[in-house]
Amino acid sequence: MKAGVIVFPGSNCDIDAYKVLEKLNVEVKYIWHDEKIDDEDLIVLPGGFSYGDYLRCGAIARFAKALENINEHIEKGKLVLGICNGFQILTELKALPGALLRNKNLNFICSDCNLIVENTDTPFTNLFKKGDIVNFPIAHGEGNYYIDDEGLGELIKNNQIVFRYQNNPNGSVADIAGIVNKRGNVLGMMPHPERAQDKLLGGEDGLVFFKSVIAYFKEV
Amino acid sequence: MIKAYIDVTLKKSILDPQGTAVKKGLEKLSLYTEDVRIGKHIEVLLKEDKIEAAREKIDEMCRRLLVNFEVETYSVRFEVIE
Amino acid sequence: MNRYEKVGLTKEEYKRIVEGLNREPNDLELSMFGVLWSEHCSYKNSRALLKLFNTKGERVLQGPGENAGAVDIGDDLAVVFKIESHNHPSALEPYQGAATGVGGILRDIFTMGARPIANLNSIRFGHLNDERNKRLLKGVVNGIGNYGNSVGIPTVAGETVFDDCYSDNPLVNAMSVGIIRKDKLKRAIAQGVGNSVILVGHTTGRDGIGGASFASCNLTEESEAMRSAVQVGDPFMEKLLLEACLELMDKEYVVAVQDLGAAGLTSSSCEMALRGGCGIKIDVSKVVTREENMLPEEIMISESQERMLFVVKKGYEEEILKVFKKWNLNAAVIGEIIDDKNLTVTAGDKVVGCVPVELLGDGAKATLRSYRRPKYLDELHLDIDSLKRVEDLNDALIKVLKSENIASKEWVYRQYDYMVRTNTIVRPGGDAAVVAVEGTDKALSLTVDCNSRYCYLDPYEGAKIAVCEAARNIAATGATPIAITDCLNFANPEDEEVYYTFRQAILGITEASKVLNTPVVSGNVSFYNESNKTRIYPTPTIGMVGLLEDKNKACTIDFKELGDSVILVGETLNEIGGSEYLKVIYGKVLGSAPRCYPEIEKNTIECLTKLIKEGLIQSAHDVSEGGMIVALCECAFKNEIGVEVNVKTSLREDIFLFSESQGRFILSAKKEYVDEIITEFKRYGVLAEVIGETKGSKIEVNINGTRVIDKSICDLKRVWEEELQCIMD
């Protein structure tokens, strides 16, 4: 399995994502925003403030050269993971439905965060059990997931909700913390699994998440 | 040249916590309002001299970048600048 | 008003300029003197006293005088750090003031070639019953958070303090810490005649013009109208600048780098030339401006943010411009190094100003002002026996836990991304933060501290305490304190009484830092923190860095298991002067500050770090504001592990609980290690005794056989956790 972490100007969780993949012996490289993606099996859109998050979070990043052929990539069935700012970019790209608004309390929130695993039938969560509670930290100011009723109905019908917050920190519709596309190969989530990679740093639930991806490619 | 003043706001159906906070803040000053909503104001200077052409261009800008129609809507006002 | 008064110079200073130049300065030149000879840039009122600091030590690679200090941490690495104030801008525009404060201190770190790995801050406000103070707190925290979060540097520790004296004069002190291979340390020394001077980063506008001289006068209503003196920060630009600079630091053709802070191009070019003993020629027409028709003097003193000055070997200009282009940064060759020791400003071919670098950069005379012991110091007597005894100490405890200074600061630090880069081992909320050093087993322990109430009661003792408390915070994580940076916030130095407190504080810092072997390697002075109504307490904020050889051994304040012994290290004395208890319960700021004995602190710290290293300690927490009882609560809260304490004492019960005697820790340890721990402390000449054990889910304290505190942790934790949150949301 090969992985690429896209680095936009303003990305700042790129290193953390790289570190966890490297730790799990995945062949991983950084992809600068104006390079093209190649045949990586997993593309990570990392957290941060791409292009300063000016205008709207992720609005400008979606025009980056690295994302030019992201749709073909997705159609081929390769995996795309958007964490935090990456999730925002994926909604701007319309690769995932909905939008991310300012946190309900208007403040940036950095804290540990318990999530309920809702869907284990994805390449990202196959090593979890449905209903597992995992701790992935959150660190965002605009993580308040919004989707209209109709869209929410679709998400539920297609089992696209992957993670829900145990205690909704930001006002997200239906406590949604992470969703996949219909096909299940694109995951966007506000919490940071890559930060939960070491007991010394407060927990390692994130390792199970990335090991799921590795396990998925072993089976394929 | 034409200057376009674009106001981007959250759709009516979407909760605007910033607006709510400002409404509450005003109330602390005994300034009561029916509703406060906060948006973005964007000014764009265009080479065009016909408003029609300018409108077309601004609409495209809004469609492709400036507005996220999932949650936002916009209005534009034009001013011809000598 | 005379033309020299307009730029904040005195008649005597103007005379010296005319003598030095042998002519009258033109407007441009005069503006440059105005900003560079301001207190903010020249340190004219503090330099003489700052010489008293001990700045040397076997680990020190770079002491004061550069953009930041640097200290050897082994493995060929150095830690680079500095603290700086952004008080006046934050008073006017809290969000931008605080944000640009963070930006400025970050640039000081990466200018040295180091990658910033952590930010800290010390912020102070008036009490939150005033809406204005709430707005200031909100703005400052937003500003610090947004800037640090966007750049992707974790904000890992800090202090938030409330006192009426900061109502009109909030303090915002920002500290940044970076890591570099020690042979790569860059210094801002301009050299090599003919080498090119390149300005990179944001375009230059009129923002922040006169910021430096603005920071050197008292805040008045007039300055409320001077709003344009406040700069606007762009963290995205900073991030690009940071990455581009770090990419270039390895390059042999980069001769020197200096960030543009106060007084913009004038100070950066002048400082670099002064250090290198050369001259610099700057062509203002080459500077990319963002506003039309900017005057040469506006360009020279603009404080537009996120800009850096590079000196590059001749012939390598294209190479460096290529890197900046990759990062989408503006960059232009704006001048060159010359050998006539002048700062020459041209607009195209026309010379518009020319002054000797030495006169401009070093000509503001360092003066030792006269000082006088303030009268108020004789009016602080506190008769402890006259304090009416509190009926229920449980209620008193709740009041103290709810006090803004003691209550949980989670509302503040949860707005800071303290985890980004995945190196944060000990998070905010404890004594000091611990951040892993990538590629090694080591970690840094980081803290900022100052109890300014003690400094008000006794500036010498208070400053000593600030250093010792910082050291205790570091030691509680298991790390050894290695060096400090200081931010000296004071009122008007022209007032003899203020200057006395300033001098005493410097003597106190010097004394403690010598004993603890933590030299001062960088710092900042901020004067004129006063308004018509109030002046701040002397506030010498200490930022300290400690080294933990094995990051896996990092210790936290939280009780870990039931059935552990709880040990009180150090002596509890009849010291309630200046305490939070005295303020909250009796409304008084009186008495003597607690005594501080650096030698004993040193032994305590050495012993504690040794025991932590040996794995004998489960948790360690410094006893500070709120005394032993508050420290016990803080140990108990996170894991909700209760404690029962039984002690005998001749002190009044409330004083025993809330005394803020220095040099104390609350430890918890497995029972089988207790004898060894107590014996070891005795060997170091330090008192330590078992006072109880972790048990149940209550805080219970029995003094001389009488139960004085009996409360469930949940109840106490709730008031402590919710207070600030409730006020602010």
From TrEMBL, chain A:
NCBIfam families for this protein: FGAM_synth_I, PRK03619.1
Subunit structure, interactors included: Part of the FGAM synthase complex composed of 1 PurL, 1 PurQ and 2 PurS subunits.
Main subcellular localisation: cytoplasm
Pfam families named in the record: GATase_5
Reactions accelerated catalytically: N(2)-formyl-N(1)-(5-phospho-beta-D-ribosyl)glycinamide + L-glutamine + ATP + H2O = 2-formamido-N(1)-(5-O-phospho-beta-D-ribosyl)acetamidine + L-glutamate + ADP + phosphate + H(+); L-glutamine + H2O = L-glutamate + NH4(+)
A molecular function (GO) term: phosphoribosylformylglycinamidine synthase activity
Domain of life the protein comes from: Bacteria
Gene Ontology cellular component annotations, sorted alphabetically: cytoplasm
Entry's EC annotation: 6.3.5.3, 3.5.1.2
Subcellular location: Cytoplasm
GO terms for biological process, alphabetical: 'de novo' IMP biosynthetic process
Keywords: ATP-binding, Cytoplasm, Glutamine amidotransferase, Hydrolase, Ligase, Nucleotide-binding, Purine biosynthesis
Residues the record marks as active site: 84 (nucleophile), 192, 194
Function: Part of the phosphoribosylformylglycinamidine synthase complex involved in the purines biosynthetic pathway. Catalyzes the ATP-dependent conversion of formylglycinamide ribonucleotide (FGAR) and glutamine to yield formylglycinamidine ribonucleotide (FGAM) and glutamate. The FGAM synthase complex is composed of three subunits. PurQ produces an ammonia molecule by converting glutamine to glutamate. PurL transfers the ammonia molecule to FGAR to form FGAM in an ATP-dependent manner.
Pathway given in the UniProt record: Purine metabolism; IMP biosynthesis via de novo pathway; 5-amino-1-(5-phospho-D-ribosyl)imidazole from N(2)-formyl-N(1)-(5-phospho-D-ribosyl)glycinamide: step 1/2
InterPro entries: Class_I_gatase-like, PRibForGlyAmidine_synth_PurQ
Keyword Hydrolase: yes
Protein name listed in UniProt: Phosphoribosylformylglycinamidine synthase subunit PurQ
Automatic annotation (TrEMBL), chain B:
Family annotation (InterPro entries): PurS, PurS-like_sf
Catalytic activity: N(2)-formyl-N(1)-(5-phospho-beta-D-ribosyl)glycinamide + L-glutamine + ATP + H2O = 2-formamido-N(1)-(5-O-phospho-beta-D-ribosyl)acetamidine + L-glutamate + ADP + phosphate + H(+)
Gene3D superfamilies for the chain: Phosphoribosylformylglycinamidine synthase subunit PurS
Signal peptide: none
Record flagged with keyword ATP-binding: yes
Signal keyword on record: no
Source taxon at top rank: Bacteria
Regions annotated as coiled coil: none
Alphabetical GO biological process terms: 'de novo' IMP biosynthetic process
Protein's job: Part of the phosphoribosylformylglycinamidine synthase complex involved in the purines biosynthetic pathway. Catalyzes the ATP-dependent conversion of formylglycinamide ribonucleotide (FGAR) and glutamine to yield formylglycinamidine ribonucleotide (FGAM) and glutamate. The FGAM synthase complex is composed of three subunits. PurQ produces an ammonia molecule by converting glutamine to glutamate. PurL transfers the ammonia molecule to FGAR to form FGAM in an ATP-dependent manner.
Subunit architecture: Part of the FGAM synthase complex composed of 1 PurL, 1 PurQ and 2 PurS subunits.
Name this polypeptide is given: Phosphoribosylformylglycinamidine synthase subunit PurS
TrEMBL record, chain C:
The keyword Ligase appears for this protein: yes
Keywords: ATP-binding, Cytoplasm, Ligase, Magnesium, Metal-binding, Nucleotide-binding, Purine biosynthesis
GO molecular function, one term: ATP binding
Catalytic activity: N(2)-formyl-N(1)-(5-phospho-beta-D-ribosyl)glycinamide + L-glutamine + ATP + H2O = 2-formamido-N(1)-(5-O-phospho-beta-D-ribosyl)acetamidine + L-glutamate + ADP + phosphate + H(+)
Gene3D superfamilies for this protein: PurM-like C-terminal domain, PurM-like, N-terminal domain
Gene expressing this chain: purL
Organism phylogeny: Bacteria, Bacillati, Bacillota, Clostridia, Eubacteriales
Record: residues binding Mg(2+) 2: 108, 259
Any Pfam family hit: AIRS
Associated pathway: Purine metabolism; IMP biosynthesis via de novo pathway; 5-amino-1-(5-phospho-D-ribosyl)imidazole from N(2)-formyl-N(1)-(5-phospho-D-ribosyl)glycinamide: step 1/2
Binding sites annotated in the UniProt record for Mg(2+) 1: 84, 524
Subcellular location(s) of the protein: Cytoplasm
Role: Part of the phosphoribosylformylglycinamidine synthase complex involved in the purines biosynthetic pathway. Catalyzes the ATP-dependent conversion of formylglycinamide ribonucleotide (FGAR) and glutamine to yield formylglycinamidine ribonucleotide (FGAM) and glutamate. The FGAM synthase complex is composed of three subunits. PurQ produces an ammonia molecule by converting glutamine to glutamate. PurL transfers the ammonia molecule to FGAR to form FGAM in an ATP-dependent manner.
Positions bound to ATP: 43, 82, 486, 523
Protein name: Phosphoribosylformylglycinamidine synthase subunit PurL
Domain named PurM-like N-terminal: residues: 65-180, 429-547
Residue span(s) of domain Phosphoribosylformylglycinamidine synthase linker: 2-44
